UniProtKB/TrEMBL annotation:
<dbReference type="InterPro" id="IPR054058">
    <property type="entry name" value="HTH_67"/>
</dbReference>
<protein>
    <recommendedName>
        <fullName>SalK</fullName>
    </recommendedName>
</protein>
<dbReference type="Pfam" id="PF21863">
    <property type="entry name" value="HTH_67"/>
</dbReference>
Length: 276
């Protein structure tokens, strides 16, 4: 669809999805399950749609985490709580976080955004996109603010699955992708290594040239199908509805200050008067 910028759409649904993992409510929900640290909660909640997935499978699908970092959480997480219990915990954490960050979740704008996002998410291709497919198979929440989150999660994982396919097709490995991204976005290598569990030696070995711009173009192209199905007018309306939501979440969520995605909606999306 001419004129659609897949990255601009991502900037709007990613912050809404990210409350899944990086909020006090999320951490409290997984702590209540008995998780040993935030990363066990993260891997348990994100992998739960797959069932009791092995660390090898999760390492492959999440792509840029060092295998040892995944093994510290899995399969132990499945002895702490079952995948359905992790799914219930993540939905409870999301509900609490959105209610705190947005103030009111019972608005006509959220109802409309949820309807548009659901249409887009149901049009996202699933072939070769395991995380998107696993999340699509879950029941849709009834409340509009949670239905919007579920749709954003499907769209986010569909884009992520497509991104991994592009990295593989361009021969860019997991640690190499992080090193290239850190350099391009002026992110601290030490921070990125710690965030994804790589050693200095692994980072130095992976820090080699790669065609990251082509990967990003391929990622954006592979993410357009939902918006082509939604159509130009409704996609534009979705952007209008999601912009203030993304800004409100990002401005109040400390996890959006520094993150391995170099995601900064407050800087990239801010418009005069958005919070008035």
């Amino acid at each position: 669809m001419s004129g659609v910028d897949a990255r601009q759409l991502w900037l709007r649904f990613e912050p809404y999805h990210d409350v899944t993992y990086f909020t006090p409510e999320s951490r409290a929900a997984t702590d209540a399950l008995g998780c040993k640290g935030g990363w066990m909660g993260y891997f348990g909640m994100r992998a739960a749609p797959l069932g009791a997935a092995s660390p090898e499978l999760v390492t492959a699908l999440f792509y840029n985490f060092a295998p040892r970092m995944v093994r510290r959480a899995l399969p132990d997480a499945w002895s702490v709580a079952s995948p359905p219990e992790f799914l219930r915990a993540r939905l409870a954490g999301v509900d609490g976080a959105l209610r705190r960050l947005l103030g009111s979740v019972d608005t006509p704008e959220i109802v409309e955004a949820a309807s548009l996002a659901r249409t887009a998410a149901l049009a996202a291709p699933l072939a070769g996109r395991p995380l998107a497919a696993a999340n699509r198979a879950l029941p849709w929440p009834i409340e509009p603010h949670l239905a919007l989150w579920h749709a954003c999660t499907i769209l986010r994982e569909a884009r992520g699955d497509g991104h991994i396919a592009a990295l593989v097709a361009h021969g860019v490995g997991p640690c190499q992708a992080l090193a290239l991204y850190a350099r391009e976005h002026s992110l601290d290598p030490a921070y990125m290594r710690t965030a994804r569990g790589w050693t200095v030696e692994e980072w130095e070995a992976g820090d080699r040239p790669g065609d990251l711009p082509s990967v990003e173009r391929a990622t954006d192209a592979a993410a357009l199908a939902p918006w082509e199905a939604l159509g130009a007018a409704r996609t534009s309306r979705f952007i209008d509805l999601m912009t203030p939501l993304a800004l409100r979440i990002a401005s109040a969520n400390e996890a959006m200050r520094v993150n391995p995605m170099a995601l900064d909606p407050v800087r990239e999306l801010a418009v005069p008067g958005w919070n008035t």
